[in-house]
Amino acid sequence: MTKIGVLALQGSFREHITILKKIGVEAVEVRLPEHLEEIDGLIIPGGESTTIGKLAVDFGLFEKLRAFGREKAIWGTCAGAIFLSKDAHRQQPLLELMDITVERNAYGRQIASFEMDVEIPALKKVSPNDAPFHAIFIRAPLIASVSGGAEILATLPDGRIVAAQQGHLLATAFHPELTNDDRVHRYFLKLVG
Ligand code: GLN
């Protein structure tokens, strides 16, 4: 049976675990390097990317996470997407696994948090439901650029990139774990294989 780990240093890891269990997947919290040895894929939740990065360094997880992502699937939501990126234009620990650059808190104060229906065509691979995905953005980053092996999975109507994929690596600027829609989780399971 597939076992998914959720990095549980800070942020919305409990919500991811709840939704994974709901779709019948074994889900465990990852806090220590050895926890990575028993899982097939990893979710890095939303939260505060600087904090997650610093804690990953302190807990001896940083290099292990990088090595894990070279071979196995990782999905970063919001702060997790920042942590996966190769550049966030700030001094903070980044895994640099994905060829994406991000701009933190890109949506400004007024609309720092908002919800929007987003078309994600790739979800058709896991569900006959082709309704747009109700995406929740909370002080979200913008995926400013996608290069190399990374591709765009979803944009806002104005073209701003909100989801990207690079092989078995997935980044979403929004929070599918805060909705009842499990399609992005099921899409990630497909990348886990
Ligand atoms: N603003 C946070 C950061 O820059 C991300 C917010 C979130 O994960 N909801 O790390």
Verbal overview:
With 193 residues, the protein is α/β, with parallel strands linked by helices. The chain has one domain (3-192): 3-Layer(aba) Sandwich (Rossmann fold). It has helices at residues 13-22, 49-58, 62-71, 79-84, 183-192; strands spanning 3-7, 26-30, 41-44, 73-77, 100-103, 113-118, 133-138, 142-146, 151-155, 161-166, 169-172. A 7-stranded mixed beta sheet has the order 2-1-3-4-11-10-9, sandwiched between helices. A two-stranded antiparallel sheet has the order 5-8. Helix 1 links the parallel strand 1 (3-7) and strand 2. It starts with a strand and ends with a helix.
Compile the SSE list and pairings:
Blueprint: E1 3-7, H1 13-22, E2 26-30, E3 41-44, H2 49-58, H3 62-71, E4 73-77, H4 79-84, E5 100-103, E6 113-118, E7 133-138, E8 142-146, E9 151-155, E10 161-166, E11 169-172, H5 183-192
Parallel strand pairs: 1-2, 1-3, 3-4, 4-11
Antiparallel strand pairs: 5-8, 6-7, 9-10, 10-11
This protein binds glutamine.
Glutamine binds at residues 46-49, 78-79, 82, 104-105, 138-139, 141.
Rg over C-alpha atoms, rounded to the nearest angstrom: 15 Å
Classify the secondary structure makeup into a structural class: alpha/beta
Query: Could you say which small molecules are bound to this protein?
Result: glutamine
Shape descriptor? globular
Largest sheet: 7 strands, mixed
Number of domains: 1
The percentage helix is 10-25%
Tell me, what is the CATH class? Alpha Beta
Count the E strands: 11
- CATH architectural label: 3-Layer(aba) Sandwich
CATH topology grouping? Rossmann fold
Mean pLDDT: 96
**Strand order, biggest sheet?**
2-1-3-4-11-10-9
Q: Name the beta content range.
A: 25-35%
| Separation of the first and last Cα atoms | 11 Å
- Spell out the CATH superfamily: Class I glutamine amidotransferase (GATase) domain
